[in-house]
Amino acid sequence: MTINSNRYIEVPVMTVADAARFIGVGKKVIYQLIEFDEIRAVREHGKVLIDRSSLEAFHSSGKRP
Predict the structure, then answer these.
(1) At what angle do helices 16-23 and 27-35 cross, to 10 degrees?
(2) Which of 52, 60, 57 is closest to 18 using CA atoms?
């Protein structure tokens, strides 16, 4: 998995598990959304953290994972 480190994310952030529960999908789908640049994420101390605003924007856009 490649995480684009040259973009900034905003606080608050969510874990992959929390993001998956938030939009009702599995964790694998969240990793795919990161890979396809649909949502922003960073790796911090071994954890992948999802930018909540990008997740909310994706969810409200009506796109399907």
Answers:
(1) 100
(2) 52
